[in-house]
Design brief:
Blueprint: H1 2-16, H2 40-52, H3 68-72, H4 99-115
Length: about 120
C-alpha cells in the first residue's frame, strides 16, 4: 500500500505541473518476496545452476512479476530462475527463447531434482 500511495503522489504531482488530469487505479498489487539464501534447498539449486548453466552464476534479487510470493507465504523456499538475454525481446513483442537456453534450464531442473534430498 505504501508503494501504491507513493506512485499516486508522484503521478499526481508531476502531471499537475504540466496541466494533465490523471486518475490512477491498480488492477493488482503484488507482494514482494524473498527466500533465505542460506536455506539448504536454495543452496542445492544454486549449485545445480552453477554445474549446468554457469559456474559464475550468483544469487540476485528479482524485480517480481512471478508467483514466488504464493510459495514463500506458506514457508516454501523459493527461487526464480530462467534464461534472459537482451536480444530475446523478453516480455515484449516476438519474445523468444533459444533452444540451447531451454536445454540449460531443463538440465538445471534435472540436476536439482537429482541432488535434492
Amino acid at each position: 500500500e505504501a508503494v501504491a500511495r507513493e506512485i499516486e503522489t508522484y503521478v499526481r504531482e508531476n502531471t499537475s505541473e504540466v496541466g494533465i488530469e490523471t486518475d490512477i487505479s491498480f488492477i493488482t498489487k503484488g507482494r514482494g518476496w524473498s527466500s533465505d539464501p542460506d536455506n539448504p534447498f536454495t543452496q542445492v539449486f544454486l549449485e545445480a545452476a552453477r554445474e549446468v548453466a554457469d559456474p559464475q552464476i550468483v544469487m540476485a534479487a528479482d524485480l517480481g512479476g512471478n508467483d514466488g510470493h504464493y510459495f514463500t507465504s506458506v514457508g516454501i523456499p523459493t527461487v526464480c530462475f530462467g534464461p534472459i538475454a537482451a536480444d530475446t525481446n523478453f516480455h515484449g513483442i516476438d519474445e523468444f527463447m533459444r533452444f540451447s537456453d531451454y536445454e540449460k534450464v531443463k538440465g538445471v531442473l534435472i540436476r536439482f531434482a537429482e541432488t535434492c534430498e
